[in-house]
Amino acid sequence: MTKGKTIWILGLPSSGKTTLGRELFEDLKIWGWDVEHFDGDDLRTTICKNLGFTRKDRIENVRRVRYMCNLLNSHGIWVVVSFITPYQEMRDKNRKFIEDYTEIWANAPLEVCIKRDTKGIYNKGKDGSIEFVTGISDDFDNPKNSDVICYTDREGIDESVEKILRVVFKNRYKLSK
Amino acid sequence: MTKGKTIWILGLPSSGKTTLGRELFEDLKIWGWDVEHFDGDDLRTTICKNLGFTRKDRIENVRRVRYMCNLLNSHGIWVVVSFITPYQEMRDKNRKFIEDYTEIWANAPLEVCIKRDTKGIYNKGKDGSIEFVTGISDDFDNPKNSDVICYTDREGIDESVEKILRVVFKNRYKLSK
User: Fold this and answer.
1) Number of A:B CB contacts under 8 A?
2) Closest partner CB to B75 (pick from A34, A63, A67)
3) B71–A36: do the CB atoms touch at under 8 Å?
């Protein structure tokens, strides 16, 4: 059986990871791939239910998601992940332990993300009602070696998806919409 | 896509769940099914790494495995589970939340399991070096409505597998070895 691929989208809260992940998921499905989308918020209601936002918990979180990616990939299922993945050590482990791994950085400036604040996380971080907000009170290491950088503040979604799929399919692909 | 099935083998420690699960897994693979085997011990090194053996932890353990079964089943992958699953409430939830669920009770008398004690668990339970040993210091509710009961102290493995597959395939199957 052909193994599946993992496309891992990381970035600050409100950087557009979920939007990008959903679009990618839908495109891959249309092409007939068997694909799963893991989104940070969903994961926290399923296999990561008991985990919080400390460094240790975030690392355990990513470890579990990595396990799931490997499991699904081994059965030929593709996985798109939308997950903050704030520390470089997590990404290094992803690259080491996931066989077919493409890393995407949804890169929007912090100010833009704070302005969007889709889920009100930054606001809650500022007024202290939640601890450990990535970008405010918890680290986000700038990725060292992402395979694709999507500038989600100034690229259209189609442009970002196009960039990602070019890399995933090693340039033997052209989006036509 | 045809959904996968979950075959969930439960029973006391050393009741033969793992042996039965492996055999079933191999048989299903030979027939061309895409199948995964989740064994209690393996799970405790992967998605259930941080969980212990308290009632609460055991319930969370099973909840996660159930999630994994549903996920894989939804992609057409069969899952064989070998897991103590000591409380009836866990099994009731399995039946409620897993679409195609067949429950197998690996049923050997406690004395036989204690004598086998494949992993030395009962001994450790007796001398107090581990707490919460199912059958000794923690409950094992006798299953109320398992679909198949395998008497692993007096049935051969082929006989047990045959019984299971007959039920799973609704009698439209005959093992020929």
Assistant:
1) 39
2) A34
3) yes
Q: How far apart are CA B66 and CA B8, in angstroms?
A: 10
The ipTM value here is 0.87
Q: What percentage of chain A exceeds 70 in pLDDT?
A: 96
Q: Does pLDDT of B33 surpass 80?
A: yes
Domain assignment present for residue A21? The answer is yes
**Best A39, A43, A50, A74 residue to mutate vs chain B (most B CBs within 10 Å):** A50
CATH number, domain with residue B152: 3.40.50.300
Tell me how close the Cα of B150 comes to any Cα of chain A, in angstroms.
29
Q: How many domains does chain A have?
A: 1
Q: What is the pTM of this model?
A: 0.91
Average of per-residue pLDDT across A152-167: 94
And the tokens for A155?
Answer: 């690229």
Q: Which candidate, B95, B120, B160, B169, places its Cα nearest to that of B13?
A: B120
Distance in Å, alpha carbon of A74 to nearest chain B alpha carbon: 10
In a domain, A107, yes or no: yes
Q: A27 lies in a domain? A: yes
Contacts of B69 in chain A (CB under 8 A): none
Q: Which residue of B has its CA nearest to A64?
A: B47
**What does the alpha-carbon distance between residue B115 and residue B98 come to, in Å, rounded to a whole number?**
34
Domain membership of residue A152 (yes or no) is yes
Domain that holds residue B130: 6-168
**Contacts of the segment A88-92: beta carbons below 8 A, 24+ positions apart:** A88/A141, A88/A143, A88/A144, A89/A59, A90/A58, A90/A59, A90/A62, A91/A8, A91/A10, A91/A143, A91/A144, A91/A145, A91/A146
Selection from A115, A157, A150 nearest residue A11 by Cα: A150
Q: With a cut of 70, say whether residue B177 has pLDDT above it.
A: no
Min Cα–Cα distance to chain B from A105, Å = 26
